[in-house]
Amino acid sequence: MDVNKKYFSNINSRERAIFEGGITMGALFHQFVGIPLNKESVPSIEKSIKESFELQPAIEEVDAKIDLKRLDSALSDFDYTSLSGDMLNIKIKTKVDNVIATIRIEFIEELNYPLMYVEEIKEL
């Protein structure tokens, strides 16, 4: 079965690349925010985010970073805290046909908010 023809024929490749990145970013955010972490667990969590979401068909690359300064300021007396959206700095690159979309979440100081947005669209 041609999934693209059956389910995505009503949108173009650019829209599909943005769609795939957006749903992946939303899933990532809601799956990982709230997990306990400390400084030592950061590399394994970043790796887990990257490797798990790169399994999806349209996902070309995931760059996952956790802001260690924000983590430091949130650590409890027990030397751990819960991951929050403001600690995330993540880029997801999707590829659909000849279009690559980069979807991003990062904490924007002037908004005081971890914003998800479309950082770049490229046609090859």
The end-to-end span amounts to: 26 Å
Largest sheet: 4 strands, antiparallel
The whole-angstrom Rg is 16 Å
Enumerate the strands of the largest sheet in spatial order, edge to edge or round the barrel. 2-4-5-6
Provide tags for this entry.
elongated, 4 helices, two-stranded antiparallel sheet, four-stranded antiparallel sheet, 34% strand, single chain, 124 residues, alpha+beta
Notes on the structure:
- The protein has 124 residues and is an alpha+beta fold.
- It is 35% helix and 34% strand.
- It has four helices and six strands.
- Strands 2-4-5-6 form a four-stranded antiparallel sheet. Strands 1-3 form a two-stranded antiparallel ribbon.
- The chain is elongated and about 55 Å long.
Reconstruct the topology from this structure.
Elements: H1 3-7, H2 13-32, E1 36-37, H3 42-53, E2 59-66, H4 68-74, E3 81-82, E4 88-96, E5 99-108, E6 113-123
Antiparallel strand pairs: 1-3, 2-4, 4-5, 5-6
The gist of it:
The chain has 124 residues and is an alpha+beta fold. It is built from four helices and six strands; from the N terminus they run ααβαβαββββ.
